[in-house]
Design a protein that fits this description.
This protein is of the alpha+beta class. The protein is globular, with a radius of gyration of 15 Å. It has one domain: Gcn5-related N-acetyltransferase (GNAT) (Aminopeptidase, 3-Layer(aba) Sandwich). The termini are far apart. Helix 4 links the parallel strand 4 and strand 5. 39% of the residues lie in helices and 27% in strands. It is built from five helices and five strands. A five-stranded mixed β-sheet has the order 1-2-3-4-5, with helices on both faces.
């Protein structure tokens, strides 16, 4: 079961959210404390969302999503910023995450769910089990 945290839960579990956010950062922000403050503000205003996946009454996964806009197509997308498994994630948990996010994205008038990952297993599960198009690659240049 995957559930979106409400504001009270975000505040109560902030230390865990903070720790996972710092573990999953693709790169370090210039000012970590400002970045974390911005994350909390985005979560409390629902610009970003924190989800937890639970199996056997234990948190197995934490997911961070946020809305992004495609100004050219005039579309809103739900970006999966990270999926952090506390333990090895079953294919069923991945399916539960995606099904929950698909429902949420539709309910919030998003046209797509988008994500990026450098973890081969996540890419293959998304492609092979969740029917995601993984043909587009994310590239970045350090400036």
């Amino acid at each position: 079961m995957v559930k979106k945290l409400n504001n009270e839960q975000i505040e109560r579990w902030w230390d865990d959210i903070r720790e996972v956010a710092l573990l999953t950062l693709p790169r370090r922000p210039v000012d970590t404390e400002v970045w974390l403050h911005n994350l909390m503000v985005k979560l409390l205003t629902d610009v970003a969302q924190c989800w937890v996946g639970v199996e056997d009454n234990n948190i197995k996964v934490m997911v961070l999503t946020m809305f992004i806009e495609d100004a050219i197509y005039d579309e809103k997308h739900l970006l999966v910023y990270y999926i952090y498994g506390v333990q090895f994630l079953s294919e069923q948990m991945y399916k539960d995450i995606i099904e929950t996010l698909v429902t949420y994205a539709k309910d919030t008038k998003c046209s797509h769910i988008v994500a990026y990952s450098n973890i081969d297993r996540i890419v293959s599960v998304c492609r092979d089990k969740l029917n995601a198009d993984v043909s587009t690659h994310y590239m970045k240049w350090r400036l």
